[in-house]
Every structure is written in C-alpha cells, then in structure tokens.
Amino acid sequence: MVLSDIILPILILVIFILSKAIKIVNEYERVVIFRLGRLSGIKGPGLFLIIPIIDTVVKIDLRVVTIDVPKQNVITKDNVTVDVDAVVYYKVVEPSSAVNEVENYKYATSTLSQTTLRDAIGQIELDELLSKREEINRNIQEMLDVSTDPWGIKVTGVTLRDVKIDDTMLRAIAKQAEAEREKRARIILAEGEYIAAEKMQQAAKLYQDMPAGLKLRELQTIAEVAREKNLIVISNSMEIGGMAAMSKAFSEKNKG
User: Closest Cα partner for 35 from 55, 58, 59?
Assistant: First the structure.
C-alpha cells in the first residue's frame, strides 16, 4: 500500500515531464530553442525532445505570408497626388535571425513595406507609374529584400494592386491623350498629302514626256465614266498637256 502511494505520484510526475518535453512540429514549421536564455539550435519538422523549464521554444512558420499593404497617399516626382496600395509576399528563410535580429518580424516587414512603397512611388513620375507596373514591382521587391535580409526574410513578390488618381487629374490626362491623338492624326494626314503631291508631280512629268500615255489615260478615264454613267466635262488633251508643262515649269522654278 505504501509502495503504490509512492509510485503513483512519481508516475504522474514522469507523465507531466514527458508532456512538456515532447514536441511535434509540422513540415512547414521550425522551432528555435533557447537553453537558459542562450540560442541552443533549431529543431523540426517532426518529433523532438526539450528539457522542460530549462528550454524555451519559439515556433516559426516557413510558409509564404501575404501582406495587404493599406492604401498610401503619395506625391509622385512630378507633384501628382495618388493613392496606391499593394500586396507583398514574403517567407522566413532563417528562423534564428527572424527571432534574434528583430523584435516582431511580421510587424516590421509590414511597416517597412508601407514606407518602401511611398519612397519608391515618390521617385517616379505619373506616366511611369501607369505604364511600368512590372518594373516598379521588381524595384520595390529588390528594395524590400535588401532591407529584410538581415532578419532572415525573403521577399518573393510585390504587386501594385490599385492606383487611384484625383478626378481633376483624370480629366487633365484625358485631355492630354486626346490632344496627342489629334496631333498624330494631323501629322499622318499631312504626310499623306505630301506623298500624294509628290506622286502627282511625278505623274505630270511622265505625261509631259509621253503625250501618248496622257492620251491613253484620258481614254481610260472616259471608259470609266461611261461604265459609271455619270456626267463629266472632259478637257482637251492639249489643255492637260499645258497643265503638265506648267507643273514642270513650277517644279524647275522651285529647284532654282
């Protein structure tokens, strides 16, 4: 009876110690172990033992973490105010650094993402922000990765999700785009007129050197008019030849 009274408490104590000593972590987790306050090592995945009371553990998740960076009010390089938000993806690659080098790596990475986003957008103009999203994403990722590397953090991706511009600025951008399209249209029209004028001048010279060709062209025009059954006044070929001569004289005058 006395022996059983002794064994039972010992058995309870052993079970209690084992429950505290046995640890199991998943494949995507690691445990940083401190023994009497000093870094002892990193364990996991699977089952391992620690010394209760003497050892303390900090569990770290190695999976990719997503940070939803809240909307930031930023002034671009050309003094345009925009609201920008982004998504940042990172993972812990050095668990011991994530525990020892920074107090709270999740909060630190989130705050750094916000400040880096503002700094990066502030160094570019609005046109670049709207047209070079992929390049800006890579630049922000590289800036974050350099800053978080001492913490054992690897930034795997950054995506600018939304860029919001003031309505007044949107109207100004729309007017600028419309003016640019109109300018291109006028340039193309002017180039077409110039090419057509050159071709007409060349044709006039050819007809002057080949009167028979001019007559054939006149007959072809008459045939086309006859097929269309339209009324047209046809000038004498001599008059057309005179016009060709005038065109040649005008061309030689310009060259002189």
Answer: 55
If asked whether residues 85 and 154 sit together in one domain, one would say: yes
Choosing from 61, 88, 112, the residue where a domain stops is 61
| 149 DSSP assignment | G
Per-10-residue mean pLDDT, the chain, length 256: 69 79 91 92 90 91 94 88 93 95 94 94 89 92 95 95 77 67 82 82 73 67 65 49 48 49
Residue with tokens 């172990």: 33
List, in order, residues 6 or more apart from 208 with CB less than 8 Å away. Answer: 214, 241, 244, 245, 247, 248
Q: Is residue 97 within a helix (H) or strand (E), and if so which, with residue range?
A: helix 95-100
Domain end marker among 95, 130, 165: 165
Q: Which helix (H) or strand (E) holds 65?
A: strand 65-75
What domain range is 41 assigned to? 2-61
Cis peptide before 45 (omega within 30 of 0): yes
SS3 track for 167-187: HHHHHHHHHHHHHHHHHHHHH
- Residue 101: CB atoms within 10 A of its CB come to 15
User: Could you tell me the CA-to-CA distances from 17 to 36, 44, 122 in Å, in that order?
Assistant: 17, 20, 57
